[in-house]
Amino acid sequence: MAAKSSQTPKKTTKKEAASKKIKFSKETYIKWYKDMLLMRKFEEKAGQLYIQQKFGGFCHLYIGQEAIVAGTVSATRPTDLHMTAYRDHAHPIGLGTDVRRLMAELYGRQTGVSKGKGGSMHFFDKEKNFLGGHGIVGAQIPMGAGVAFAEKYKGTDNVTMVSFGDGAARQGALHETFNMAMLWKLPVIFIVENNNYAMGTSVERTTNVMDLSKLGSSYEMPSFSVNGMSPEDVHEAVAMAAERARKGDGPTLLDIKTYRYKGHSMSDPQKYRTKDEVKEYQSKDPIEHCLKVIRDNKYLTEEEIKDIQSWVTNEITEAIEFAEQSEYPTKDELYKDVYKTEGYPFIIEY
C-alpha cells in the first residue's frame, strides 16, 4: 500500500517482505516479468536503431521505469483509459499493443499505430484505450481530466490514468485541473512518474516542495507517495485509487518515485548525476526483482524462463523486420486525420 504523504515510511522487516511476496499470484509475477522484459528490450533496441539513424525525431526511453506501467495495468481493467507524455513506448506495450506496429511507428511507416505520422512521441492505440503520448509538456493533465469527465457523463465506471513527469508538475494547468477534478469528483488517477530530474534539473532545484504528493493537499485530494521500482507497490496504490474513483469518491494523486537509467532523451549527456547513483537504482531493478521472486518460488523452470526470453527476442526481431518492410505513408495522408468532417475543404498540393 502506498504511504500517505504526511507519514514517514517505516523500514520493511524480513517477515513483512515475505508476506508481501505472496499477495500476488504466480501468474501475476510471470506476466509482470514478461511484459517488463518486452518493454526493456524494445527500448534498448529503439536506442540502438536511433543511433544507427534508422529513424529520426526525438526518442525518450522508459528504461528503469517499467514497474509503473506493469503495476498500473495489472491493477486496472481493459475498459479503463490511459494517457501519458512523450515517454510513451512502454505504456501501449503493457496494454498489449503489438510491438510490430509500435516499431513501424518509430520508423514512420504507414503500418504504425499512428499511421507513421506521430513517431516516437505520439503513440496511440484506441483499441487498447491508450489515448496517446503527448508532446506538449503537461497537456495530458487537463485532457485526461476531460476524458474522465466524459466517462462520468456517459455513466460508465471507467477510470482514467493520467501519467506525467515531475517536470510537468510545474505547469499551471495542473492546479486548475486538480481544482475542477475534485469539485466534480472525476474518476481520474493522476500519476507523477517522478524520476527526479525532469529534462535534467533535479526536483530539489526547482521547488521547495520535495514531496510532490503534497501538490494535492490544497484541493484535499487524497495523495500518496509510492515506490515506483516495485510493481507490487504500484499495483496496490493504483488499485486503491481506482476503487475510490469507481465509487464516485473522485481523483487521487500518486507520486510514484522511479528512475530512468538513460537520459531524458537520446541527446542528453547526463552531467547532472553520477554513475554511482545510476548503479544504485539499477540494483533495485524491477525486472530482476520479479525474476528473483519467480526463481525463489519455483514458479518457472530455468528452461521456461529461457523460453520467455527467447520469445521476447523474437518479438523484437520480427518487429524490426515488419517495420523495415512496411511502406511509408503516401502523400494524400497529409490531408487525412486532420478534421473529423469528411471532405473538409483543402487546397491540395503535392
How would you characterize the overall build of this protein?
- By secondary structure, the chain is α/β, with parallel strands linked by helices.
- The chain has one domain (14-335): Thiamin diphosphate (ThDP)-binding fold, Pyr/PP domains (Rossmann fold), CATH 3.40.50.
- Helices cover 41% and strands 10% of the residues.
- It has helices spanning 14-21, 26-51, 66-74, 90-95, 99-106, 140-154, 172-183, 231-246, 275-282, 286-296, 302-325, and strands spanning 3-4, 81-84, 130-133, 160-165, 188-194, 223-227, 252-257.
- A seven-stranded mixed sheet has the order 1-6-7-5-4-2-3, sandwiched between helices.
- Helix 2 runs antiparallel to helix 3 (66-74) and helix 2 packs parallel to helix 11 (302-325).
- The N and C termini lie far apart (57 Å).
- The model is unreliable at 5-10 (pLDDT under 50).
